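Deliverable D2.4 — example input (structure tokens):
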């Protein structure tokens, strides 16, 4: 849990207290929150678009071992066969062709513990990018997207307990 919060505080302009508050809110409230909008609006979309080839290379190289780890170590049953869908989705999001709600829907079957355990590793995939600005912007973008996934997963867990 600490590494999840650490990943978010290192890559997003949010304090630990702000993160804990966000993570306890319903998804619809977070999607409309000024905090999330500020994070998303602060992304350098032009830089992300310019460096999509770099991100594509990183994801093509790093996602297959990541997917194996998800399947073999965390026991996730539905894992993509290739990095193509993730890369395509990220490109679609950067180009305003994919929505956060679609991202949430795609990841609903993923158990929350596995999702939360995977985020530091997923954000860390970009650690090897030499250009610091590019590395930081991609880590920030991935962290922001993952924050939405964690909020949704926690909301889903709370709803399951209430039933």
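Example output (designed residues):
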């Amino acid at each position: 849990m600490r590494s999840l919060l650490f990943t978010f505080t290192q890559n997003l302009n949010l304090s630990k207290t702000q993160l804990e508050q966000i993570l306890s809110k319903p998804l619809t409230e977070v999607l409309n929150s000024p905090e999330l909008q500020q994070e998303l609006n602060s992304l350098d979309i032009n830089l992300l678009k310019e460096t999509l080839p770099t991100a594509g290379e990183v994801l093509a190289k790093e996602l297959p071992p990541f997917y194996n780890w998800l399947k073999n170590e965390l026991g996730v049953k539905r894992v993509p066969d290739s990095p193509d869908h993730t890369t395509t989705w990220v490109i679609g999001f950067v180009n305003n062709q994919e929505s956060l709600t679609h991202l949430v829907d795609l990841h609903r079957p993923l158990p929350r513990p596995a999702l939360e355990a995977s985020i530091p590793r997923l954000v860390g995939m970009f650690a090897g990018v030499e250009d610091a600005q590019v590395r930081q912007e991609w880590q920030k973008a991935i962290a922001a997207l993952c924050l939405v996934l964690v909020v949704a997963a926690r909301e889903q867990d709370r709803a399951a307990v209430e039933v």
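DSSP finds ten helices and no strands in the chain.
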